[in-house]
């Protein structure tokens, strides 16, 4: 009965059935959170773990059928590693190796040339959870003086039970699309600590509904406009026949629309976490905060004219996970650039095995490097600083936003088209304008600095 209904719903919405199942599953998180608040908030931890485990398994079965065994296998193996191998570097390395290879094998055997919603989608979220769990358990065996403030908050004082790991892994608010959170946060949720009313469910209905409403608006925007900006249009003769300026503007508008697909899912899922209490983040300036699970800063995303600002506002928890467990753990290397490159390489293969991911993240590194050089130039040049703060700023902002979104869309082309033959065709049609623009900017930056920054200022910076 459910299958024909879903088929009809997907036809009426013009969306594939797996996408409809995914959205429905994220929305089902809200009634699950309400049931937890009403019937399970005061129950023993074991009962809460069982509720979270079976509700998450039901969602997995609804979306992926018998393929839910992949997540079950990885959770069981991770638990056995923690139990049998203890708080050792070997545990961390074994966990990272097993979970990453399992995910990559999944990508290899299921990959197509299209974006498919299959079991590997939630599994990449699970992979980060389980590897992060091994790091946090390892940190729990260190002296507090050896840990950063982040590590102290997440460190596990004892080995978790299998049921606890299952509840953490399958929690309906983060199993399918994230966000990332630590087992310590989950333990505090189960203990009833994540609330603004001690001993009672949190007053989080209004904050949760605000995120739901915002996510729903983003979903509507995507649903209305995505048919006008399909990925497939890039590969048509019609696109190639359009004027150069039209092809560039299409990339800009397409990028804005395509990203709402991710924004809507993350913001709606965040609302589920807030409703359950997992989003509670303490008190700041006398106000209760509900942003512990925020994966999007939507206002910053919409208004920033900087590439760095967009990255800082987008997929926040995954970026924070990579910073905490990859970038900062490589401090012993003594080279920030190498740590940055290694982190981007990890994110590349974590997303998948297509060449488009490699190109996207390599271009991200190049673009961010050029932007940092440009910002330093504006900051150190009296002329450019004066111009940036002049009455011309509104015009500068509009131009900056156009460049920003044009070249945000540019690396997203291979990210969404995946394969070499497709993204090369698109880049050829716009004469590799993004590559040329940033290569020229990178090459002329030293000469601009020499021309616009006073010699004394350059000398001071060189000494620093």
TrEMBL record:
Listed name of the protein: Lysophospholipid acyltransferase 5
Pathway: Lipid metabolism; phospholipid metabolism; Phospholipid metabolism
Keyword Hydrolase: no
Topological relation to the membrane, as annotated: Multi-pass membrane protein
Organism of origin: Seriola dumerili
Lineage: Eukaryota, Metazoa, Chordata, Craniata, Vertebrata
GO annotation (BP), single: phosphatidylcholine biosynthetic process
Keyword Acyltransferase attributed: yes
Similarity-based family: Belongs to the membrane-bound acyltransferase family.
